[in-house]
Amino acid sequence: MSPSKLPKGPLAGTHGVTERRRRGGDEALRLSEERFALAMQGANDGLWDRNFETDEVYYSPRWKNMLGYADDEVEHTLAAFERLVHPGDRARRLEAINAYFSGAAERYEIELRMRHKHGHYVTVLARATAARDADGRVVRMVGTHVDVSEQKRSSQRRAAQYAATRVLAEATTLKETVPKFLKVICDAAEWDLGCALVADPDGTQLRGFTLWRSLSVPAGDWEGGLRTRSYAPGQGLAGRVWATGKPEWIVHADQSADFPPEARAGGMNSVCVAPLVVGHRNVAVLEFYSRDIRPRDDDWFTMLASVNVQVEQSLRRRQMERDLEQAERKYHDIVEQALHGIYQTTPDGRIVSANLALARTLGYDNPDEILNFDGPFAERLYVDPGRRGEFKQQIEVHGSVRGFEARMRRKDGAVIWVSIDARTVKDERGDVKYYEGSLIDITDRKDAEQMKSDFVSFATHQLRTPLAGIKWLLELAQAPDLPEESASYILDARASADRLIRLVNDLLDVSRLEGGRLATSPQPTDLAAMSTEVINELMPLAREKNQSLVMEPPASLPAVLVDPKLGREVVLNLISNALRYTPAGGAVTVQMHSTNGAVEWAVRDTGIGIPAAAQSRLFEKFFRADNAAIVHTEGTGLGLYLVRLVLERSGGRVWCESKEGAGSIFRFTLPLAK
Ligand code: ADP
Predict the structure, then answer these.
(1) What mean pLDDT is reported for the chain?
(2) Bridge-based pairing state of the strands 230-231 and 560-562
(3) In the chain, % of residues over pLDDT 90
(4) Any idea which fold 523-671 has?
(5) How many Å lie between the centroid of ligand 1 and the Cα of residue 628?
(6) Residues with CB under 6 A from ligand 1
(7) Is domain 446-515 given the CATH code 2.30.30 in the classification?
(8) pLDDT digits (tens, 9 = 90+) for 30-80
(9) Residue 333 CB: number of other CB atoms within 10 A?
C-alpha cells in the first residue's frame, strides 16, 4: 500500500503545526510521517489518535482487528469506543483520564475490557500521551492498545491454583473442602458463580451440593433451583461430565440446550464444567459460570486437572494421617492397659515415656512421677546403678536385650527384682533415638529360686565334707594286694565319688554365681590364646573319639574384658559339649572375630544337633534335650546355665544355631577391653 492511499491518519489530520510544516515541504518530516503511518497499520499494538479540536478519533486496523473487526467495520468516532468498552470499566477509565489531564497521575495507563465482535471481552492494556497547546489544554491524545488477555488468563489460572493449593493444605474431607475450594478459585479467576455437585455414594445420582456467588451477582430465586438439581449419569451437562470424566465449556448460553436454565436466569452466559476425580472415581462436578462471555480456555482445564491431583494427594494424606492417629490411639490404649510395664528411655538415662503398669510396678501412682525425675533414673531405680551400664553395653553390642535381670528400688524403698526386655529405636540417619521395651516384676520367681538355691547351697555344702571323706577312704582302701574283683569295685566307687564331687562343685559355682558371691576380677584377656590352651587340653579326648578338633586362628583379635578363670570355664564347657555331642569321626571347629565393640566366638560341630523345641530352653538350669540324654546319660544340665551366667555378668551374650541331626553352632560375645 502506498503512503498516499493511507487512511486519514493521525499526522494527515488537521493539526496546525503539522500542516504548516508539510506545506513548507520538509522532506525529512514527510518521510517520518509516512513511517509513522505505516507503523499504525502494521504494528502489533493497536494505535489510536484523538483530536480534541475536531473530535475525530483514528483507530488503526490492528486496533480494530484485535476486537475481531475489519478496518471498515468500526467508525472513527468516540462513540464507537464507548460502545465497545465493558460497562463495568467505563467509570474507571474516566477517572484515569481525568487524573492524567489534571496532572494528578503522571501517565495514562489502564487495563480495560473491550468487547470482541464475538461477544466476549478482550483485556487490553491502554496507554496514551497527550499533546497540549500553549495554554496547557489537551489538543490531542495518541495511544496504544495491547492485547493482554492471555497474560490475564494465565495470571488468573496461577492465582486460582495458588489459592486452591492453600485450601488443600488444610483439606480434611471432600465435603468440607469443596465449598472453600470453589470460593477461592472463583475469587481468584473472577468467575461470577461456582457450583459443586456431588455424586451419591452408590453412584446413581449427582446432586447439587454447594453454591458460591460473587457479591456483584444479585441474589435470586434461581439459586434454589441450581442447588437442588439432580442428574442421572449422562443426563444434562453436569451428568455428562460426571459420566464421561471429560470437562466441557459452553461459551454462549444461548447456543446450548444443556446450559442450566437457572444459571441463565441468574444472568450467566458461559460455563466451564469439570469433574473431580478421587480414587479413580468421578466423585463430584464443579461448574464455573460467568456473566461475560468467556471463550474456552484449555489451559484452564489443565490447571484444574493438576489441582485435582493435589486434591487426591491431600485427601489421601489426610486419610493416612487419620488412620495413623487411630492406630496410635489404639496403640496408646493397649500400652496404657498393658499388664507389663512399657517404657522408652534415652541412652543417657532419661525416661521419655512410661505406662501405668510401669509406674505401679515401681510403686508410683502415675507415670508422670517417673517422667519428672530429675537427672538419670539409674541412680534412683537400680539398687546397683552399675547394672544400667551393663544393660547399656549389652544393648549397644546386640541392638536388643532379653530377660535382663536387675534389682530395683520402689518408691517406698522396697527392693524388687525386675526382668527387662529392650530394643533400640533409631532415626532415619541410623542414630539411636531411644531404647524401648518392657519390664516385669519377677520378685516372686526370684524368691522361689533363692529358696531353691539356698537349699542347694546348703545341701552341697553339707555333702562336700562327707564326699571328700569317702574319696579319701576309697583311696586308702585301694591296697595293692586286694583281690581283683574288690579292686575293681573300689575303682568304680572312686569314679562315682569323683563325679559326685564334680556335680557338687558345679552346683556350688552356680549358687555362688547366682548369689553374686563368686569374686570375679575382669581383665583384658586374649580369647585366642585361651582357646588354644583349652583345645590342647581336650585333644586327647578328641583323639580317643577320632574327632578333628581345630581352631581357625584369627588374623588379629582385640582383647576382651572377662574374668580369665570364668572365661576359661565358658570355652571349656562349650568345646567339651561339642565333642561330647558329636559322634566318633566328627569335626569340631573353633572360630572368632571382632564385631562392633565385641569379639564373637563360635564353636561348630557335626554332631547330633538340638531339637527345635529344646533350643529356647537350652540355657536354663538342669535342662537337657532328649536326644542328648540318650548319647550321654551323665550330664547335669548345668554347664550351659553356668556359661550364660558368666557371660551375662561379663556384658556378653550366648546363643546357639542348630538343626537336629545336622550339628550345632554355639556362639558368644564378650565386650572389648577398652
Ligand atoms: P549337659 O551337657 O551336662 O547335659 P549342658 O548345660 O552343658 O549340660 O547342656 C545342656 C543341654 O544342651 C545338653 O544336655 C544337650 O541337650 C544340649 N547341648 C549342649 N551342647 C550341645 C551340642 N554341642 N550339640 C547338641 N546338643 C548340645
Answers:
(1) 88
(2) unpaired
(3) 55
(4) Heat Shock Protein 90 (3.30.565)
(5) 7
(6) 573, 577-578, 581, 605, 607-610, 618, 623-625, 628, 635-641, 664
(7) no
(8) 666 666 666 666 567 899 999 888 888 999 999 999 999 999 999 999 999
(9) 10
